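job 3f2a | input accepted
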Amino acid sequence: MEKIRKGDEVIVLTGKDKGKRGVVQQRVDAQHIVVDGVNIAKKAVKPNPMTGATGGIVDKLMPIHVSNVALFNAATGKADRVGVKLIDGKRIRVYKSTGEAVKV
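job 3f2a | predicted structure (104 res):
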């Protein structure tokens, strides 16, 4: 079960964007996610007259490893670890600090 999913609000724990909050836009693979407003790189783009695209330097969202982010707990206002509990035969995600279910 994925502990961090698309649409979750996360906080960056390490790296140049430490402390920033953002929403997970997509999962690249099992270990990498793209977070809105985090890990932005500059990319030089050539103009393409066939498509009408102009050239220049654009910002591109790059993937970040899931171990460098933690789920944001709105109740405590801090980053929190995520566990999995079996309730009524269903696996649900819970915050480790409080034990309450993660709201999607």
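job 3f2a | The two ends are 15 Å apart (CA to CA).
job 3f2a | closed
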